[in-house]
Give the backbone structure.
Amino acid sequence: MLPVLRLASCRAHTAWRIFQHTHRTPLRQWLPKRRQTTLATGSGSVLARSVPVPNAATDRVIGRWLLGCSGLVLGAVVLGGVTRLTESGLSMVDWHLVKEMKPPQTQAEWEEEFSKYKQFPEFKIMNHDMTLTEFKFIFFMEWGHRMWGRLVGLAYILPAAYFWRRGYFSRSMKARVLGLCGFVFFQGLLGWYMVKSGLEEKPESHDVPRVSQYRLAAHLGSALLLYCASLWTGLTLLLPAHKMPDSRQLLHLRRFAKVTGGLVFLTALSGAFVAGLDAGLVYNSFPKMGELWIPDDLLAFSPTIKNAFENPTTVQFDHRILGISSLTAITGLYLFSRRTRLPQRAKVAIGCLTAMAYTQVLLGISTLLLYVPTPLAATHQSGSVALLSFSIWVLAELRRAVK
């Protein structure tokens, strides 16, 4: 009996040894592999931390952010144009950064807001028979424009603070971003400064109440500058510069494109004076102004320089000349580019610019001949920003590659 027990015990011990060996071997093999994996992961994280910031990846992020911001600015310009065309810009007679974000809710609040509007010249002279329902429409137009402006401000400032904290900006980019954010703040103040000019009593004037065309041009001009700066920076970060040989012909093409872009910007800015003086409602004929090529009242104001900014006839005449000049310059740029060896992307950009230029001129002539209908006029105003966008794209494609 005892030998049998000893044999059973020996076999059990042997089986236990085999069990231990079978189950411990994978664990022993796994531990060194685990150590290697941990070391590899640790070295990978160290390498990830050693990648310099900013880099190509962060530049792409910033580029997309700035393109998004420029799109919001474009929306603000278009909405501002519609607000102007529907004569809604003077419906909100005070300015509060936070308080006005909530529009009137109850009937009493609407009556209070309407009573404020009734105290100002636009209601007394033009809209004295306006109903509360009609007032709500123009109020919401202006309110929407102001809220969109606040959205633009947040879209610039909040991501900028995040990217700054993460170290995404180079030294030069920090200066640009600070300038853009400061310009957004300045644009908001300039907008209210413009509105105030239309709320002032002017006993000596028999004209309809309107904002100052000078302040309107400054407001639009600053918005276009913000848009162009954001779009240019975004495109240069996202689109690699073409490595083109520096030839005399290419140098001339670059200069030509810069002059053409400046002319497009000036034409768009002159549209602010057309809108501010309702100059689109005089001489609704083309190509002549009435029966004449040069109207008699072109220099009716004294001193002469005053006509360029305050005489509706002269303002419309200047806008026509600038528009035709821009079309001529863009056509010349297109023909010049056909004789220059350019990358495909640059050719596409110049082609889009040319097509948009002819579309914009047709829109302008149609708006004039049809006595400025709001949908068509808004499309024409939006077309000016589209034309400016293509100009910026062309300049980005033709820029020199950094060596």
Remarks:
- DSSP finds twelve helices and no strands in the chain.
- Confidence is low (pLDDT under 50) at residues 1-5, 22-48.
